[in-house]
Amino acid sequence: MDDTTPSNPDLDNGSRRTRRPRRRKALIALFVIGCLVAVGGLLTDRYLGSLQEAYEKRSVVSLDRGASDGERPAEAAGDGQNILLLGSDQRATAEAAAQEVSGQRSDTMMLVHLPADGSEAYVTSFPRDLYVEIPGHGQDRINAALSYGGLPLAVNTVEDYTDTPIDHVALIDFEGITGLVDTLGGVDVHVPESFERDGMQFTEGTQHLDGEEALVFARERKQLDTGDFARNQNQQQLLKAIAGELLSGDTLSSPGKMRDTIAALSPYLTTDEGLDSRTIVQLGVENRNLRSSTLHFLEAPHGDPYTTAGGASVVASDEEGMEELRTALEEDTMDEYAAEHAD
């Protein structure tokens, strides 16, 4: 006797009818997803391509980096990055860039430390008249390094002084601030101290600045109570306001605004070769969770102003304070350092 259960044609046909629509729906869904991925990839490529085209307007220099003793500082304990930001009042021409930006002095110098997890950023300002050892040139103001040897010597000087390896460097001419701020629609800046300059009034408190006002705000020091120290604070406040606008949802969600912002800044920007568009995108992805509230602004430890035997007005270094900062950078514990020293 055959125990095989007879097949049920109606049941078989129903199962097939059920499976076929499901398969068709699955195939259609996969096709739609594939199309979306393809279109998304195409749009992403075009978007990144437009950003790259805008960014490549910058000037580029090669860094031959080595500390004064021929050895660069040891790598930090963590996997974070250090970027040196310099600001100059003299526009870097193509000829000057080809000569590694010689002849300029960096009126603004900030060391940006980005931890590996991208959760925070630590911006440390150095007084432009800080009296330090410049490799091959003896003691001088720290801002003279750019004049003596361009970006490579500026990097070497800061690496030596902080005992910290610097991964990238960027020099911006102050004139670029005007276009950058105007592209962002202006920025709301905290003005620490009231002053007037060039017919513009800056009043203590929060003030909306356009590009021209932001440029004057970043440059002024003579009318401020503590001169260059107060200007450093103003520049930090401006940088914080710009970063807050750049990191806002309105800017990040607008490809056109991002492209226009980069295009406005790039002609005034000089970087090392390694800080190319791919690296910028990678840094953006790694630090995508940054917000203005996670930017910590610090001042490098220093002593009081004094006059050298040669009659130069300089700012004394603070070796004890610097050792604390060097340790924090080396051990990647800037969070602990900032908790004690952030403004």
Structure notes:
This protein has helices spanning 9-55, 94-98, 144-162, 175-183, 211-219, 228-246, 249-252, 255-265, 277-286, 319-330, 334-341; strands at residues 59-61, 81-88, 108-114, 121-125, 131-134, 138-141, 168-173, 187-191, 195-197, 200-202, 205-209, 269-272, 295-299, 302-307, 313-317. The termini are far apart. Helix 10 (319-330) runs antiparallel to helix 11 (334-341). The longest helix has 47 residues, at 9-55. It is of the alpha+beta class. The strands form 5 sheets. It has a 7-stranded mixed β-sheet with strand order 1-12-7-2-3-4-13, sandwiched between helices. A two-stranded antiparallel ribbon has the order 5-6. A two-stranded antiparallel ribbon has the order 8-11. The protein has one domain (56-341): Aminopeptidase, CATH 3.40.630.
Observed structural traits:
15 strands; about 350 residues; globular; Aminopeptidase; about 45% helix; about 20% strand; two-stranded antiparallel sheet; alpha+beta; 7-stranded mixed sheet
